[in-house]
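Hi R.,

Here's the chain you asked about this morning:
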Amino acid sequence: MNNRNDLTTANREYKDTMFRLLFREKQELLQLYNAVNHSHYADADQLQVVTLENAIYMNMKNDLAFLVDCHLYLYEHQSTYNPNIPLRNLFYVAREYEKLVNDSSLFSSKLIRIPTPHFIVFYNGIQKQPERRELKLSDAYLCNDSIPELELKVTMLNINLGNNTELLEQCETLKQYMTYVELIRKYVKEPDTTLTEAVNRAVNECIKNGILTDFLRKHKSEAISVSIFEYNEVEEKEKMRRAEHSVGLEEGLLIGRKEGELINLIRLTLKKYHKHLTAAETADMLETPAEVIDQIYRAIEIAGTDDIEEIHKILRSL
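And the predicted structure, written out as tokens:
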């Protein structure tokens, strides 16, 4: 793949995604909501958008937030798998509630009622993921409580073509968006094709074939710019992961890790081990080289105990 320098307008602190651009209109967002919830709302005014435009955390921001009846929905789009999305959503929803109860006194003897929250992530990365999975805030806790006092559950839906077919059929815009993404992926693999050329070709083909036609005609330049930015961002993250993996191998996988970091990694891995996840699945969820998790799994099995210090001792001797 060519070395591309196509970030013409991508040096802003935060840049919209194609997903957010497509569903910022109430009618489109309502269609997506109906598809996810198997509902049949027809009046877009029943949906109140409450996305916080200035709610940015470390260059990340909630994509879409809205109210329907007595429920608060936070929708995210991810083109790379991120196990920290529950923690991010905790920050986002806290800011949403802060805004929603701004005129009320939290010290009042009267109970302040708040909308029930729901968290959805629409995933369309190239890394293989199941059609549906649940990510929990408690997965990140250092100590494992059987009933966590603070929990936040995020449902991740894989929207790549061939996954969650019923959802895509119920939301035509989502289906066409993924068709557009697949075209970019297809063309960018062709020899001597730059990312800019691949995106332009995908946009023009979609317009010609009735895929997101109205949107792309109206927002063509913005769609091209955003798509270039998104693809480069994903590519750079993948390069960083490969580099980190390579450094881990060069340093003997565990050499150079701070003791506190290794102890924490053992704790997290132990939780996944007892959930009967494979080493590969755990490595994926913890974004850690598979060889490292393989060694920790081996140490756990040799130790035959959940004693962190004993596992750590055995791990260092392998």
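Residues 107 and 123 are 40 Å apart (CA to CA).

Let me know if you need anything else.
M.
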